[in-house]
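To: structure subgroup
Subject: Chain for Friday's discussion

All,

I'm putting the inputs and outputs inline so they're searchable in the archive.
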Amino acid sequence: MLQWKDEYSIGVESIDEQHKHLFEIGNRIYDLLENYLYVDKYDKIVEIIQELGDYTKYHFKSEEDYMIQIKYPKYLSHKVEHDDFIQKIEEVNFKDLDNDQDKYIRDILTFVFNWILEHILKKDKFIKA
């Protein structure tokens, strides 16, 4: 489970709020993994992954627009990381999901949590004006 900490703040309120929402989506993935009442999690997994994809596109566009506005010098390399993340989410193979749903959720969760933390702490920290 991801807990927002002040150290994750980049000092741009709108982007920080969007990052917090990404944490919330990640935590819903975690909650689904830990929920043993659902026998079949397929529909919930698909729903969360689609929301994650849609929201990251919105968030990345906002962040990229801000970087352009402040003339951020590493805009292109930062955008490549965003594009790679979106590609990874879009390449989710929902057929594989049915083989072992909990493993699939765990793999997605690990990818999302690691990426969010690494990206915010090591890349996004530098884009404030």
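Points worth raising on Friday:
Residues 23-126 form a domain with the Four Helix Bundle (Hemerythrin (Met), subunit A) fold (CATH 1.20.120.50).
The longest helix spans residues 42-69.

D.
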